[in-house]
Amino acid sequence: MLFDHDSADSLRNRAEVINRAAASDKEVAQQHEGHPGDALPPGTVPSNHEAKHHTKIEPPVVHHNVVIPPGRSFGLTVEEIARFENDCENLAKYGGVRGVADILKVDPKKGIDGSLEDLVARARDFGENTYPVSKVKPFWKYIYEALQDPTLIILIGCATVSLTVGLTTEDPKAGWYDGGGVGFAIILVLLVSSTSNYRQSMQFRALTAENQKIMINVTRGGKRIKIIIFELVVGDIVHLGIGDQIPGDGLLVKGTTLIIDESSMTGESEPAVKDATHPFLISGCKVIDGTGSQLITAVGMNTEWGKVMATLAVDNEEETPLQVRLNHLAETIGKIGMTVAVSVFIVLVVRLLIEADLKHFSAAEGRKIVNFFAVAVTIIVVAVPEGLPLAVTLTLAYSMHKMMDDRALVRNLSACETMGSATTICSDKTGTLTMNLMTVVSSWVCGKLRISTEMDKEIKKMVEEKLFASICLNTNGHVGISEEGVLEVSGSPTEVACLNWATKLGAVFDDIQKENTIICVDTFNSTKKRMGVVIEEKNGSIWVHWKGASEVLLKQCTRYIDAEGNIHDLKKEKMEELEGIIVTFANSALRTLCFACKELAEHESQVLKVKKPQPEIPDQNLICLAIVGIKDPLRPGVTDAVHKCQVAGIMVMARSSPTDKHTLVKRLLEMGDVVAVTGDGTNDAPALHEASIGLAMGIAGTEVAKESADIIILDDNFASIVKVVRWGRSVYVNIQKFIQFQCTVNMVALGLNFIAAMANGEAPLTAVQLLWVNLIMDTMGALALATEPPNESLMHRNPVGKREPLITNVMWRNLLGQFAYQLILLLVLQFRGKQLLGLHDDGSHTGHAYKEVETVIFNSFVFCQVFNELNARKPEEINIFQGLMTSRVFLYVIALTVAIQVLLVELCGSFTSTVHLPWHRWLLCVAFGAMSMPLGAIIKFIPVPKQPIWSSWQHRGDLVFREGGSVMSLMLRQGSQKVDLQKSRSVKSTKFYTEFSTDGENAPEPESFCLNLKKTFCPRGVTPSASNDVENPNMRNNNQAWR
């Protein structure tokens, strides 16, 4: 892919240099108008003073019969390059690949110069490897979109009517208060929601830019280095391997069985073989097999891929599964709110019409009807919990941002929440559980075990040379010396380990490369588990060298060589000895590699010398040279991370072939598990795509693996995966906190206004007050509760099932308890407030006593929500203040809510229909709200059933076996009933499902199950009954059972 260079700080300085150079060129050109004799050296950027006085005529430069005009750095333009792409005849006119490299001033072995001036010149002449990103949606469009909400449109109409009636029928100085108050509240809601949506969009945009970064290997100045893809320039020599994405259009310089998937650009399903006759490489395509180096001839918008990408816009408006479920919940609550609102409006209007004198119907009565309508619409606004989707967006955005700090890049929004439900993690071992810093620590060389760090003196020179050739020629790695004189070894971790071992034994990499000629190569892939090379030695003999997995390559060996250079048959006893050594190495957690070779007969070598795209290299009757054991130390913290997964009810499995991994994932998914899979290779892509959550490795992972994944682990560390699980669980828990809080506010507001309207024809909470409450519970409530950071307690509970209800029994208990308290409190204040507060007036609705009671109701209601927000932080814990100081956003929201509430009551009474309250009334309102906390603690002592109130009881038994285990019988017992299931074939992993959908006393308890098995692990959450037939009942969470 191509990238916006503005997303990388490392390129900003370079961009400024390029812009200055371009501006300088333009200025020089303007100064030299009318002076064709003046010219500047190609590639130079003179100062203004130099430009004025420069009169030297620069002669044209000739490169491979191509004339470079004066003032131009290179002999080709973008248009000329485009003409020879996919056209071998035109390419031949420029001298083929080598000719183009000469014209572009590129050494195929050393690459471009790589200096700042060189990079600036190439970027200026051929463009940068970027493409135009979609424009940022302006803020006013978010406001416009928010205005499309039908309820807000109705409210704006109500505010307009109220304002018109007030200004025409009352004193204009006070008549605009009601309509103006509603209008101000609408503006506040619009600004807050629009700002929130705009900020989330910016966060997603930044994460998308981070997601698009790809590191590529290039050669510059004779050194192989890694750069970000948008730093690529025309002329770069790029090194390609299996799974890599081609970063720009170009030509194949050198390749070995290079096969490219071009379906994404050409639509052709058949992979394309690239060689000297077909050297054209298209950006955006993937390497399926082989290796090669590419000369970049076009980047950015000058490539076909860039033109395609420029037409695409970033789309971050995907809905996650949780958002879909919450939308359904919001729709249901909204319908209930609509019913209540319509009922309230009808009751209020009917009561008014009954009490009013219809013959003398005044404007005041008309204004009341308008206000009734505004209250009804506002009830709908409050009832519709648009904050639920907002809460998901906020918590996902917050979690994604924090996951980046924990070295995890989220590519798919739904993966955030799905990861919290993961029941199984199928992990790679190398580089994920281990450090991927491999070292040869044990070796069998020339007939016996030897010390790995030095070459035994008894080994003859000829044998030593064969071993060094096998290591240093059959490799994709490289050994060089830095400017500081330090040995630099590059390549895959396994290659680095072997090359380091060889250099410690005395191998000189460059000398071996120069003394031998490589004829053909068979590249490594995980299917073959080996790689081979055919070489011609300086004496003219032809040898084939193989390197690969010991258990694979040893089977192809029939002989071995000793220290004297003598060849011996590999008899049964010796073969068993070598197999035993491999097992010993493997049991010591070492990766084993075998090196083998043989000299080819003349007829065999002649066949290989005939040019073929993919020659068949002989691989039988080989001579075993060496078997090495490579140690990859365990990453710090992995043991603790795996233990946390076990405590959290997650099964961790590691070390399997890509094919087995894919099969295992499919079976686990069929059995209802939520499976997370890690992968780094191209052949891991099917398993990553199949899994519930695909986790690609950011360092070792190929681009194919990353594109198939939902989350990229940037540091390749299993401990980071555990952090992702914790953040995933945090998403779900935070949403549940917000649902509990919002449903409580909804139910109280609806219940209070409905009962009061039915009883006395008045709604105690006005439209402006309800809009403020709506702001508290939607935007500000979502901001406070959805950004709560996770804690370790999340990893001490089992995963949340995919079919678990959003509102649990614990949440129902909490919200119903708070609803009952708040509704009773507010109704008492509504109907007996004057007496309880010691207030007396004429009994009208315009007196000060009435307004003070209404203000106390409004104030008490808001403070109940403030303190209930604290309760919602810990739905199951008594100590609701634990970790409060670490939740800064929560504290800011609470402080802001209280501050605005004080301002609304004391300074904005005309808008909010409130009056000044003395300090003791404020203390009383705060006390009413604070009562929510001890009440919440008492409520939490009320026991609730573990099973959801309105779901059928369901049990699933999980039976996991060691390889070779045989299930003799499964017995499920409930009382006197018994079911015996027979199964006789050998299995590696099996799960039995037994579902019960019963009610009342027929529902069995998990403890009543008895497992009568020959070799089993315990089902998750089930304690087996005492039985001698149950072996290793605690092995269910023992990950040693998996390899």
Mean of pLDDT: 75
Shape: elongated
Report the structural category: alpha+beta
> Could you tell me the strand content as a percent range?
15-25%
Number of E-state strands: 30
Note poorly predicted spans.
Answer: 1-68, 312-316, 951-1043
SS field, number of helical segments: 34
| Terminal-residue CA separation | 36 Å
Radius of gyration: 37 Å
Please give the share of residues in helix.
Answer: 40-55%
- Report the biggest beta sheet as strand number plus sense, adding barrel if it closes: 9 strands, mixed
Report on the structure:
The protein has 1043 residues and is of the alpha+beta class. It contains 34 helices and 30 strands. The strands form seven sheets. Strands 12, 13, 16, 17, 18, 19, 20, 21 and 22 form a nine-stranded mixed β-sheet that branches. Strands 3, 4, 5, 6, 7, 8 and 9 form a seven-stranded antiparallel β-sheet that branches. Helix 1 crosses helix 6. The longest helix is centred in the last third of the chain and has 43 residues, at 718-760. It is elongated and about 120 Å long.
Compose a concise summary of this entry:
By secondary structure, the protein is α+β, with helices and mostly antiparallel strands.
Features:
9-stranded mixed β-sheet, alpha+beta, disordered C terminus, 7-stranded antiparallel β-sheet, 34 helices, 30 strands, ATPase_P-typ_TM_dom_sf, 1043 residues
